[in-house]
Amino acid sequence: MFTLSLVLLATSPGAAPPVPPTPEERALAYLAREVPRWHRENRCHSCHHNGDAARALYAAVRLGRPVPPGALAETTAWLQRPAGWDRNGGDGPFSDKKLARLQFAAALAEARDAGLAKDERALQHAARLVAELQDKDGPWRVVPAGTLGSPTTHGTALATHLARRTLQRAGAGRYKEAVAKADAWLRKAPVDTVLDAAAVLLALGKASDAGAVAQKRRCLERLRKGEPRDGGWGPYVSSSPEVFDTALVLLALAGQEQTAEVRAWTRRGRATLLAAQEKDGSWTETTRPSGAESYAQRLSTSAWATLALLATCK
Fold first, then answer.
1. How many CB atoms lie within 10 A of CB 111?
2. pLDDT at 94
3. Which of 27, 244, 255, 267 is the most exposed place for a label (fewest CB within 10 A)?
4. Rounded to the nearest 5°, which phi and psi values hold at 5?
5. How far apart are alpha carbons 168 and 49 in whole angstroms?
6. Measuring CA to CA, which residue among 60, 64, 78 is closest to residue 117?
7. What are phi and psi of 62, to 5 degrees?
8. DSSP bridge pairs for 277
9. How far are the Cα atoms of 75, 292, 311 from residue 116, in angstroms, in the given order?
10. Residues 75-82: what's their mean pLDDT?
11. 208 pLDDT more than 80
12. Contact 18, 7 (CB under 8 A)
């Protein structure tokens, strides 16, 4: 069984006690077990395993974190065949081919940046699949209007961020018009919920034009209103903290100017995630409404939380 921190118990008197794995290591160990297990047992590829969870492992590889090759080998080979994504073996009542394309493409782009996906033609194919799904006014709408996104369904603002990021990684020049349309939409998108404010802030990153600055100010104000005294965020300003929403806020804050307020938010948000982590390295799923059970949402929730810890770990 794979463990990221293998500690041999010393037999000599006075030996130092074993060093326990860090929260990030426990999270990566959990995802490294679960990602290959799904296809092995179910013979299909899923947005939560081969999309969100694999993307977190690829990000870890890119950051120099140890991830066993066997955890990603099958997923990487499959992601480099975009022509087969619509026939992933999971054609059940909950299958959403539009959302799946966006999630698989985001994972493939991360795999390329991690140096594990070598076929550049595959990323170009994936980018074309993503570009053709863009709405005329700029976003990628993956949920009905007024529907709150979740760890697996993302929501329109977060899906737009991931799609735009995929196109940029495939070559911004090739998709200049599509990226520009997304940028224009992001600067005017409603940020009434904490979830959308975090997703838009994440997408805008360090953009410094007047439209971006004004929109980021609105996003930060929404986060300010939505943080309880003890830290963490829920989907609305009046909601109790949820793992997914807290993770998304932390990812967004990591790309902003590190003011004293942002650093304090990050410290409290990390503490919220760390307190919620399970012994096996995972996190209880964030669902809409809260409190339901979903293995798919658990995998994606754990992936987003892992990404947030990696992005804010010093």
1. 26
2. 43
3. 267
4. -120, 100
5. 24
6. 78
7. -60, -30
8. 283
9. 11, 35, 20
10. 97
11. yes
12. yes
Residue that is written with structure tokens 């304090």 in the block: 264
Between CA 272 and CA 290 the distance in angstroms is 17
User: For 33, how many CA atoms within 13 A lie in the half-sphere containing its CB?
Assistant: 13
Tell me 151's DSSP state: T
Structure tokens at 164: 């735009």
CA distance 202 to 240: 21
**How many beta carbons lie within 10 A of that of residue 180, not counting itself?**
13
Please choose, from the candidates 171, 216, 167, 165, the residue with its C-alpha nearest in 3D space to the C-alpha of residue 189.
Answer: 216
Q: Of 144, 69, 156, nearest to 111 (Cα)?
A: 69
Q: Where are the alpha helices (DSSP H) in the chain?
A: 23-42, 54-62, 73-79, 97-113, 120-131, 156-171, 176-188, 194-204, 210-226, 243-254, 260-276, 295-312
CB 159 within 8 A of CB 104: no
CA atoms of 76 and 116, how far apart (whole Å): 7
pLDDT per residue over 243-259, tens digit each? 999 999 999 999 999 99
Question: Three-state DSSP class for 283?
Answer: strand
Q: What is the reported pTM?
A: 0.93
DSSP letter (8 states) at residue 52: I
Closest-CA residue to 306 (of 280, 273, 284):
273
Q: Which amino acid makes up residue 172?
A: A
Residue pair 218/157 in contact (Cβ under 8 Å)? The answer is no
Identity of residue 61: V
Q: Show contacts of 132-137: CB within 8 Å, 24+ apart.
A: 133/98, 133/101, 133/102, 133/163, 134/163, 134/178, 134/181, 134/182, 137/181, 137/185
How many of the other CB atoms lie within 10 Å of CB of 34? Answer: 23
**Placement of tokens 């007024």 in the chain:** 146
